[in-house]
Amino acid sequence: MNLRRWMQEWQAKFGTMEVELLVADVGQSSLVVDVPNGTIVLSPSIKVSAAEKMLNKVYSWWRRQPQMPENHSCSLVSY
């Protein structure tokens, strides 16, 4: 699997919703979803299979929102 291409594909998918997907050292095997700022931060230590599952769930949730949710604060999803 080409990880760079995989990441670019996810960035493009989220980019259509004006959501930025980053990789940063946020903790061991975790994904941080900052809804008000439209940002998702993926830990570099997370397994690709786990990241794929979580990103699919977050993407599905975000697509169902009629507009950018303003009342949500930061959420943390750990695996």
Would you kindly provide a written description of the structure presented here, covering whatever features stand out?
- The model has no long low-confidence stretch (mean pLDDT 85).
- Strands 1-3-2-4 form a 4-stranded mixed β-sheet.
- The chain is an alpha+beta fold and 79 residues long.
- The longest helix has 16 residues, at 48-63.
- A hairpin with a 4-residue loop joins strand 2 (30-34) and strand 3 (39-42).
- The chain has one domain (3-69).
- It starts with a helix and ends with a strand.
- It has helices at 3-15, 48-63, and strands at residues 20-23, 30-34, 39-42, 75-78.
- The protein has 2 helices and 4 strands, in the order αβββαβ.
Topology (SSEs and partners):
Elements: H1 3-15, E1 20-23, E2 30-34, E3 39-42, H2 48-63, E4 75-78
Parallel strand pairs: 1-3
Antiparallel strand pairs: 2-3, 2-4
Please state the structural category. Answer: alpha+beta
Q: What is the overall shape?
A: globular
Strand arrangement within the widest β-sheet reads 1-3-2-4
Domain module count: 1
H/E series, N to C? HEEEHE
Q: How many distinct beta strands?
A: 4
Radius of gyration, in Å, reads: 12 Å
Average per-residue pLDDT, rounded, comes to 85
